[in-house]
Amino acid sequence: MANAYFMGIDTGTNSSKGVLIDDQGNVIAQYSTSHSMSNPAPGHYEHDAEKDWWGDFCIISRKLIEESGIDPSEVKALGTSALGADCLPVDENCNPLRKAILYGIDARATDEIKQLTEMYGEEQIRKWYGRPLCSSDIMPKILWIKNKEPEIYDKAYKFITASTYLTAKLTGNYVVDKFLGLASFNPLYDPSTYKPVEKYCGPICRPDQLAEIHEATDVIGYVTAKAAAETGLKEGTPVLTGTDDSGAEAISVGVVSPGKMMIQIGSSVYMILGTSELIDDERLWREEFIVPGLCDISAGTNTAGSLTKWYKDTIFPDASIKEKEEGIDAYQQMMKGVTEIRPGSDGLITLPYWAGERTPINDPQAKGILFGLTLGHTRAHIYRSALEGIAFSINQQLKLMKDHDIPIDQIFVTGGGTLNEVWMQIIADVLGISVSSPLVNIGASFGDALMAASAISYPGFETYDSLLKYIRPDKTYIPDMAKHEEYKKYQEIYDELYESTRNLMHKVDDLNSGS
User: Which member of 179, 306, 444, 453 has the lowest number of beta carbons within 10 Å of its beta carbon?
Assistant: First the structure.
């Protein structure tokens, strides 16, 4: 048996996952654990960083070592990733001062977005972001703490995101990778020097309250004695800068060159397409990607698995009861009758904006819609329409990418959504493009482990391109072009539905918020 192993651990919205691979890229052990997301007020979503992030990490690292039976000294490097664009204030000992404010799903900072837009002007904001400010940006989140929780703001030693928190707990060093730092903290870092810009930080925080920027695969420290005792890892194990979960998941399916694309279907949807240059489109996002010299254009929806879970809990409560009593998976029960319904769900269209929306509308006040309901519709229609609605959202954004003549030669779909083969086929039919699930569908933690091996240039892992030999498709879904033509008619209605109801959505939101 090989005596060199690489560990990857990823922290997501509802769970954390870890994997151990050997020096041939084979998965030796994997483990996952779940945690909850709190919703203390409308539009507010939070995690307990100590419990949900670090607690999960310690459980997983110990389980991977225990179940594989390896000696901790055989772990040659460790890669981490975590849900991106969170805001966590910590004290000098890296103790959280409040629960972490989550990524774009948290829409509390709408007033701060307006404040910053007025402060800098829409033109300057667009120069920085290529789009308006939105709930995925960290600058408004820090400002929200400053405005709403000044006592916490005054105590903050650092304002960090989840990946920074984990590496700080492991090594004592506060770092963030270039991909996440330049995108989520923009414009607080200078994109040419990667140093904080004092004049932009001034209204938000001190420059020294930000982490240092490094490449995702830089070894930025080593496991401390304290962290070793808590994680079961060996003191001195090399630790990478790490990155956000979507970036790591994209690496896990080969987004290492232009034309490679990932559609990640977890609690939300995140899409990353490798490009040769930065492309400005205010409806989408663009960044310098993890791979040196590679850029990307990306998009994100706020609901996917979180919406199907809402359906399970709210519309199909009997499925959960039957799952407990008879062991039949609730989601499997929910698919009963779905395949018998024709494309378009007999005229029922879902706007899946249950938690506002990120791209392409960048509107935290957006609301979900079931459009076209009749007495003839059933629960199966409603659920199929939800699955189609998310597929329409994916396609809406893919069409915007195609508008920029970006070549797409490979699409991998990852995450829990791939377990639903009917949904995968719906996505292929709506897009009119073949999509594949990866043979190793562990996700971001697999990407973390691959990057860990690459970080120390272990033989066979020296370059990003060399990682492609460890990434293979499992099942490919070929579109039914007749169904695609049917879906195109409903896609047109979907694309118009938000603009037709936007003002009414905002009125409802204002009434609900008491403004």
Answer: 306
Distances 209 to 89, 107, 418 between C-alpha atoms, Å: 9, 23, 40
Average pLDDT over residues 69-93: 96
Q: Is residue 445 part of a domain?
A: no
Which residue type is seen at 83?
L
Question: Last residue of some domain: 192, 218, 247?
Answer: 247
Q: For residue range 148-177, list pLDDT tens digits in order.
A: 999 999 999 999 999 999 999 999 999 999
Q: How far apart are CA 163 and CA 104, in angstroms?
A: 16
Residue 189 carries which DSSP code? B
Question: And the tokens for 215?
Answer: 């490449």
Q: Would you say residue 475 lies in a domain? A: no
CB 82 within 8 A of CB 244: yes
Domain count, the chain: 2
* Tokens 């039957």 sit on residue: 322
Average pLDDT in the chain: 95
Distance separating alpha carbons of residues 446 and 75, to the nearest angstrom: 15
Do 272 and 246 form a contact (C-beta atoms < 8 A)?
Answer: yes
Backbone angles phi, psi at 205, to 5 degrees: -165, 175
